[in-house]
Design goal:
single chain, 291 residues, mainly alpha, 11 helices, 0% strand, globular, membrane
């Protein structure tokens, strides 16, 4: 009964997305994208696309999204947006972070990426252009993946803060009390596996085309690098997402170590009142700023 209920909810959601999609205009980039996608299919095998293509997408997107935050440290006029202004980035910290990233990306995440092809084969996930869902459907699926990942992240992240295990695993991620974008995936290898598992749950629920894997990777990296950026930028379009946590919310977690355990959204922290210390801090911050 529960499985049927979930299936009915997902079917209704897909119908709602398709209904909204029928009113939206065509993607103006559809023709060049179709040409590029078909060129890729004609020149590379599914294994190459799923494995090396996914690795390239991850590395390119990760460091591309890290680049603005890296540049901000050299721009004096951007420092007014830095949340912890008394803790600037240093070359020593960034080099330490970069070395850990290389280890995690190629020794932990790459072996997982190598399973992508077998995952798509087992679940008969298509690669062809004609089966590709339109962009509103992909966005809706990414949102669904984010909801699932955020739920997993909240409870497992909170568990990793338990005093009996914190120092063995999650303490590594808290080496930096003032986070910066590149630090988003700086973590103990065990944490990379534990919290990273939430990424794949949504894929198993929603994935109906190879494009969703890459779209969800892109969205997840954009979100996690943004909340770790250390900069609260005005007019950030991600703040249009309902209940989006943002950099100031997660920055407080690194500064305070307690509370604000959600990855993307704030609702679990609100429900369990684990954002109470942040709310007091932020209220005081706004009062001081307005004086």
């Amino acid at each position: 009964m529960e499985v049927n209920g979930t299936a009915n909810i997902l079917s209704s959601a897909y119908l709602a997305v398709e209904y909204v999609d029928s009113f939206l205009p065509e993607n103006p980039l559809q023709e060049p994208l179709e040409h590029a996608w078909n060129h890729m299919l004609q020149n590379y095998s599914k294994f190459q696309i799923a494995t090396w293509g996914s690795l390239i997408v991850h590395e390119l997107i990760y460091f591309l999204f890290c680049l603005p935050g890296f540049i901000f440290q050299f721009l004096p006029f951007m420092q007014k947006y830095k949340i912890q202004q008394d803790k600037p980035e240093t070359w020593e910290k960034q080099w330490k972070c970069f070395k850990m990233l290389l280890f995690n990306h190629f020794c932990i995440q790459l072996p997982l990426i190598c399973g992508t092809f077998y995952f798509t084969e087992f679940f008969s996930i298509p690669y062809d252009w004609d089966s590709m869902p339109r962009w509103p459907s992909v966005l809706a699926q990414c949102f669904g993946c984010a909801v699932i990942e955020d739920t997993w992240h909240y409870f497992l992240h909170r568990a990793l803060h338990h005093r009996r295990i914190y120092k063995y695993i999650h303490k590594v991620h808290h080496d930096f009390t003032a986070p910066f974008g590149m630090q988003a995936e700086y973590a103990h290898p065990a944490e990379t596996l534990i919290l990273g598992a939430g990424f794949f749950i949504g894929i198993m629920v929603f994935c109906n085309h190879m494009i969703l894997l890459w779209a969800w990777v892109t969205f997840r990296l954009l979100e996690t690098i943004d909340v770790h950026s250390g900069y609260d930028i005005p007019l950030n379009p991600l703040h249009l997402i309902p209940f989006y946590a943002g950099a100031r919310f997660h920055d407080f977690h690194h500064m305070n170590f307690v509370g604000n355990y959600g990855s993307t959204f704030t609702w679990w922290d609100r429900l369990f009142n684990t954002d109470s210390q942040f709310n007091k801090h932020y209220t005081h911050h706004k009062a001081v700023k307005s004086d």
